[in-house]
Amino acid sequence: MISVIGGGPVGSYASYLLVETGFDVSLYEEHKEIGKPIQCTGLITSSLSKLVKIKNDLILNKIKKSRVIAPDGNFIEFNLDKPDFLVDRSEFDRFLFDKSKEAGVKTFLQHKFISNEGDKIKFKNKIVKSDILVGADGPLSQVAKSNNMFGGRKFLLGLQARVKGKFEKDTFVSSFGDVAPGFFTWIVPENEEIARVGVASTENVAQYFDKFVKWKILDKQAGLLPIYNPNINTHKNNVYLVGDAATQVKPTTGGGIIPGMFAAKELAKAIKYNKNYDELWKSTIGKELSTGLKVRKILNKFNNNDYNYLVKLTGQDRIRSIVENGNRDFPFAMLLKLALTEPRFIKFGSKVL
Ligand SMILES: Cc1cc2nc3c(=O)[nH]c(=O)nc-3n(C[C@H](O)[C@H](O)[C@H](O)COP(=O)(O)OP(=O)(O)OC[C@H]3O[C@@H](n4cnc5c(N)ncnc54)[C@H](O)[C@@H]3O)c2cc1C
Fold first, then answer.
1. Exposed/middle/buried for 55, CB within 10 Å: 0-12, 13-18, 19+?
2. Ligand 1 center to residue 337 CA distance, Å?
3. Which atom in ligand 1 lies closest to the alpha carbon of residue 114?
4. CATH number of 43-87+155-226
5. Which atom of ligand 1 is nearest to the CA of 112?
6. CATH class, 1-38+89-151+232-283 region
């Protein structure tokens, strides 16, 4: 018997994979409704199609271009090899939750995990027995805390709003530099009139948000983005962590849905074949997250001039085509190609290290 805590996308997907593998799986969510509150933009790369086939009506928009704006106002634009999907996060979460339920997962809403000891799991309203406990309970994972697996985690704070204005429907816009130290600002259009705009940073996020968001705000959200910890221990005795609970979030973009779902696949494999889960996911998706972390550490040392220069370098046609054809979920191969094609990237990286 396996108990999964957290009915977010990663918990539902992990439950689905585990029940399909033949286990008896129960999925517990603290809220009375799946997908609420929303704390996400809902932008998902095309790698999703390697994991699950979603219904077309979950996709609100397809993003075909990415524009990166430097502090001096110059920008580069990339055509995405395959479009990104903008989904309604609530509907997306419900879709995965229902999929797990249809496959045979027993689901429980309004079940807040409190702690565990041996095979006993304590919820706010009851105690159950379980052989395996999976914490897919998000950035502030109580499962991690309860099992001394939380460690000294670090987070970025993200502030986002749905706004009304004029937008280019197929273009995702991000700006770097002093507008959002340690991260970036984003504009992700739902259509020509409505967009999800936001900022994440290590400090003073509200101040950067107020400076950036000049459109009419329809609603507002805030959430934590865990900073990937490559040394995290995600398996102890009969307890496993996955998704945001395991800091499996891309350090470059803050995207956590795809890496969390890839890690869920490794989790199902590890439990089924009694393999080392830490080793399995760290040698696959974790390798890519570590590459992203190195890039993030370099970017965190950039000043406005460095960003201006980076945008200029990346604007060259031969560089642009490598970025356009690369897979952003698996950046290792792309970065290697970039470094071989334009040695100034290496010089540039080492200059700020
Ligand atoms: C502003 C912002 C924008 C973002 N935009 C994107 C984006 O565009 N694309 C992308 O890929 N990622 C994005 N992310 C990151 C993304 O939201 C997360 O990586 C993703 O939600 C992780 O999924 P998860 O299932 O691991 O955790 P969560 O989605 O956090 O789900 C955890 C679930 O566990 C439940 N839970 C928590 N504690 C308990 C408990 N004690 N008992 C029972 N249940 C519990 C919660 O209610 C929740 O349902 C964004 C994050 C922020 C903050």
1. exposed
2. 33
3. 41
4. 3.30.9.10
5. 42
6. alpha beta
